[in-house]
Amino acid sequence: MKIFSISVILAPTQGSSTTLASASDLSSFSFYQKGSVGEFMSFFSKTVAERTPAGQRQSVQENDYTAHVYNRGGPEQLAGVIITDGEYPVRPVFSLLTKLLDDFANKVPQSSFSNPSAISFPEINTYITKYQDPSQADTIMRVQQELDETKIVLHKTIESVLQRGEKLDNLVDRSNQLSAQSKMFYKTAKKQNSCCVIM
């Protein structure tokens, strides 16, 4: 999974778009390809930003690249574009685009949009570095990953208890914390389930 390019683009409803801030990670390309690939990514970003109606999100695929666009519209007329490979999940990209546009709108005054060369937004470099891992951009994905890791730890813990030679039946029989009724329930449930074991 890879993010190649992130751009904040001024996308007016009429006329051509202007790149206000951008960052790219072209380390996977050879020295001779980087210039051409960078130009293509810039062109691709501006084109999809212009072709995405205000207030909409879309993903546009071109060969091995996918451009994810969020044209926020409104009075600022900002659009965010992230170009990734085909494996990068969609939901984290759109979470990241929302964060990026909010951050840009808060830190860069709209009056400076007319002079893109004077805009300073170094945070965009942090975005492209930090969010190469999609779980950093999406809280739901991060929580799911943590749950999966917890499940693995729980499985390991249960396996390690059983490997010590103790059987659950013996533990139940010796337990002072279980009532006679609970012990009976456990044994009855085990007998009923044992009839269904396939040998």
UniProtKB/TrEMBL annotation:
Tagged with keyword DNA-binding: no
Keywords: Cell membrane, Coiled coil, Lipoprotein, Membrane, Methylation, Palmitate, Prenylation
Domain V-SNARE coiled-coil homology: 139-199
Source organism, top-level taxon: Eukaryota
Membrane topology field: Lipid-anchor
Protein localization: Cell membrane
Primary location group: membrane
Annotated Longin domain residues: 9-128
Xref: PROSITE patterns: LONGIN, V_SNARE
A Pfam family reported for this protein in Swiss-Prot or TrEMBL: Longin
SUPFAM superfamilies documented for this protein: SNARE fusion complex, SNARE-like
SMART domains, sorted: Longin (SM01270)
Record family assignment: Belongs to the synaptobrevin family.
PANTHER family: SYNAPTOBREVIN HOMOLOG YKT6
Annotated protein name in UniProt: Synaptobrevin homolog YKT6
Gene: YKT6
